[in-house]
Structure formats: structure tokens, C-alpha cells
Amino acid sequence: MPRINGERLLGDLRRIADFGRYQTGVHRPHLSPQDVESRRWLANRMKEAGLEPVIDGVGNVIGRSPKSGPRLLMGSHTDTQPRGGWLDGVMGVIYGLEVARALAEDPDTAHLAVDVASWADEEGHWGGMIGSKSFIGRITDADIDAARHRDDGSKMRDALKAAGLENAPRIELEDGRYRCYLEAHIEQGGLLEASDKKIGVVTAIVGIYQYRLTFSGIQNHAGTTPMPIRKDAGVAMMRLYSEVMDKFPALAGPRSVWTVGKLSVEPGAPAIIPGKAEMVLQFRDADPAVLQCRHRWRSDCSTRSTTRPRSTRPACTRACPPGPATMRRSWRSVCRRP
Ligand SMILES: [Zn+2]
Asked: Which stretch of 111-115, 144-148, 152-156, 280-284 has the lowest confidence by average pLDDT?
């Protein structure tokens, strides 16, 4: 019976958290210097475990087992959100590594093959799940040429070059290599703890819709512009934010969640009325019917708000099917000025 070496497993989790450690968590966006360093460390640990590691052309780290026969693929991601948790993603990668090691150490299971993967850019700094999409052939080189960092607009190609990966080939799924894929992930919602359970099984993966809303007003002096004539983009944005939070519960499914995780006003000075404001609204749900909202709210917003959202840019580029009328109604009421 193979035995997991808990000390070794926790030791690896603690060690990799040194790359980009930030207070009690980790700041390790994909292709940052800390991320690249952590990938090299991981590849070495894979090698020590008897795997044949490769860091591919988008940064995926894949440790392939030299053993023949049916194989299991295990993994997750080692990049993090800005100031993310130290177990998010990486736990699934190190679990895979430890399973490979434990099986290899037991004579009864030493013949079993496990490949281990750390998927690149799961956290979406360059576009979202670029590593796993590349692995299953869902992106092209042109997509990678076009990929830009979500914060500073820098090119993914330049970051790959800085990481020494410009000539590395992308590794794609080999037909028939795997029996299945397993991914362990830390639960980040607190539900298990609240129900006094140690482990749960994932039953669905949510879809994500994301919108960048830009509000255009008139920038002016905060001391001399009378209140009645102001076109304050920040006020319009906060009204919409507040309405979203008030109205969405009526439309939500049991697992719907929505977040405004980013807000900004320009020029962002205490004595200037914001001429432009921007917020990023995201909602997630496992039920496609709930997600199937049309982008009609864009025109609704445009016609109903004097300080109006000027442009929207859904992150999802797929055609959005006609959505439930309730959602469309909701967007209209959300955009209506009080
Ligand atoms: Zn994760």
C-alpha cells in the first residue's frame, strides 16, 4: 500500500511559497520573475521524483513519467492571483507530485505511471487558462502573439523571451496517453469548514462572464463647478455598482456570485471631478441558462444614463445567445437612473 509522505508534501508546499511570498500568502503572477523561478524549482523536484520535466512554450511545466502503460495525469496551477493564497492551485500540483513519488516507492505500485502538470496562466494575467488551452490545442501561435498583460499591456511574447522560453515548443495532449485527469484544489469558499467536512467532490465548474464598463463624464474643477451642472463619471459608476448589488439577488441561482473587483476614476485627484470612470463586473454560475444574458444591457445603459457607460468589452468573445427575459429586464432596471 503506497504511503503519502506528509512531511515531504508540506515541505514542498512551504518551499514553493517562498517564491513571491507576500505576508501570509503569495504574489506570483504567471511569468513574473518569481513565477519563472518557481517553475524551474518545480521542474527540478519533478526530476528528483523520476519524472522527465519540460517547461513548454507558454510556461506549462509537465513532468512526464518514463513508464509505459496507462497513465494518470494530475496537476493544477502554480501561478497566483495578486497577493493570492499559498495553497491555491499549487496544492493540486504538489499532490500530483507526491502521488507520483509515493507510487514509485512502493514495489506493488512502482510500475504505475503518473504525469504531473502545472498549467500556465490559470489566473488570467495574459488571457486566462492559456496553458491548459494550449495543451488541448485550443489556442494558436497568433493568439499568443496577441496576448497582452491585463494590467500593463506588455506582450506575453516578451515575457516568454525574458523567461528563456521563446524557442520552447508548446506541448499538446498526446492521443491515448491518459486514462484520466485528476485535480485536487483547496476549497476557497469556507463551506467545507462551515459544515465540518474535510473533503468534497467538485460537481460543476462555473462559467464566467466579465464586463469592463467605462463611464464618460466631464472633468472639471471640484471647487468651482456647481453641483447641478456636473457630469461626474464616478457618481454614475457608483450608482450602477450599487444597483447591481441590490438587484442581482432577485435573479440569482443558488450558486450565482457576482463581483466588482476593480474600480477606478480619472484623473484620480482629490480636487478634480472624475471625467472618466471604469469598473470591471464579473459574474459566475454553473447554470448556462443563468449566464445566457444578452449584451443588450449595453444599449439600455447608454440610453438611460446621462453620464453613460460609453463602451463595454466583454472578456468572453463567444457569441452570446439570447438570454432570459428576466435578465434583460434586470439590466434595464439596473441602468435606469433613480
Ligand atoms: Zn486555483
From this structure: 280-284
User: Which of these, 251, 328, 321, lies nearest to 296 by C-alpha position?
Assistant: 328
CA 172–ligand 1 middle distance (angstroms):
21
What's the gap in Å between 77 CA and the centre of ligand 1? 6
Domain with CATH 3.30.70.360 in the chain: 207-335
- Identify residues whose C-beta is under 5 A from ligand 1, the ion: 88-89
Q: Extract the C-alpha cell encoding 269.
A: 485627484
How many Å lie between the centroid of ligand 1 and the Cα of residue 91? 9
Question: Which pLDDT band holds residue 183 (cuts at 50, 70, 90)?
Answer: very high
Domain with CATH 3.40.630.10 in the chain: 6-193
Look up the pTM and report it: 0.77
In this model, does residue 143 exceed pLDDT 70? yes
Ligand 1 center to 78 CA (angstroms): 8
Per residue in 199-238, pLDDT (tens digit) is: 999 988 888 888 889 999 999 999 999 999 999 999 999 9
Is the domain defined by 207-335 classed in CATH 3.40.50.300? no
Which residue reads 473587483 in cell numbers? Answer: 261
Task: Compute the distance from residue 88 Cα to the ligand 1 centre, in Å.
Answer: 5
Other CB atoms closer than 10 Å to residue 11's CB: what's the count? 12
> Identity (one letter) of the amino acid at 248?
F
- Parallel/antiparallel/unpaired status of strands 71-77 and 220-221: unpaired
- CA distances from residue 270 to 60, 222, 254 in whole angstroms, order as listed: 44, 8, 41
**Reduced 3-state DSSP string for 46-101:** HHHCCCEEEECCCCCEEEECCCCCCEEEEEEECCCCCCECCCCCHHHHHHHHHHHH
**Architecture in CATH for domain 6-193:** 3-Layer(aba) Sandwich (3.40)
